[in-house]
Amino acid sequence: MKNLKLLLGIIIGFILELGCIIFVDNAINQLIVNPALGGMAEFAARTLIFIIGYFIIEKMYKKSVAPSTKNLKKGLFVYGATFWILFISNLIFDHKTPTMPILSCIPSVIGIIFSEMGTGVLEELVFRGFFFNAFLDRLGDTKRGVFASMILSSSVFGLFHLLNLISYPELLVATLAQVLYAILMGSLFCVIYYRSRNLWPCIILHGIMDFTAKFWDCFTTAPKTDFTFLLAILSVALCLMLFISAVVQLNNEFKTKRISQT
């Protein structure tokens, strides 16, 4: 039965993620030209998918992913503290000199805010809500089970980014780096979710991460360029602190559990 639930969770997660990317996003891109409206439409579509996923996860895994303030601040600023270092580094080191009038970029900024928050909603639903819970349900709520579930679901999350090569085959090094640092980020998202019992700190942090990574693109029409090997290595190395934080927090969580049980 648990193997079936694992398989169903993975299949449903992939259907929701790929269905949104292939069908919904393509339809929005073809029908809506205004970037602000397009971003809002993407957010709305992902919210609808989230509602569907909410009922499925509650039924299959007896877990709620509904919006909640429970441990929200702790998830954002304590468990997820190291993410804020990355947000600041994104804004500093990804800086691009604006080549367009600032006022004309406002619709793009608004669109990116909604679009990337929508990405946070969908990807956290799929990779933490479905995949992490599916692996955890199968492997058990033990230190070994949580760690394995974290690694497995985060690896799928990272490898999923290889699909970016379909749209940007020229960004090979950047995409391979993204696969690696997505695995590291996903690990901390899993721990934040596990410790807070609330998916929404992960959704918010994920949205801010993607927004700060794309913020400066709103102000220029320059084409994207691939990473140098040095930049790829530095990007992955910077994200190692997220994985270290995840492992340390997980160890502390189970140490606290053992003490409370004695």
Walk me through this protein's architecture:
The chain is mainly alpha-helical. 81% of the residues lie in helices and 0% in strands. It contains ten helices and no strands. The mean pLDDT is 96.
Sheet of most strands? none
Please, how many helices?
10
The average pLDDT is 96
Judged by helices, strands and strand pairing, the structural class is mainly alpha
Low-confidence stretches: none
Indicate the radius of gyration in whole angstroms: 18 Å
User: What is the ordering of alpha helices and beta strands?
Assistant: HHHHHHHHHH
Which band does the percent of strand residues land in? Answer: under 5%
| Helix fraction by DSSP (H/I, runs of at least 4) | over 70%
Write out key terms for the chains shown.
single chain, 262 residues, mainly alpha
Could you give a short description of this structure?
With 262 residues, this protein is mainly alpha-helical.
Compile the SSE list and pairings:
Blueprint: H1 2-31, H2 35-61, H3 72-79, H4 81-93, H5 102-139, H6 143-160, H7 164-167, H8 172-196, H9 200-214, H10 229-261
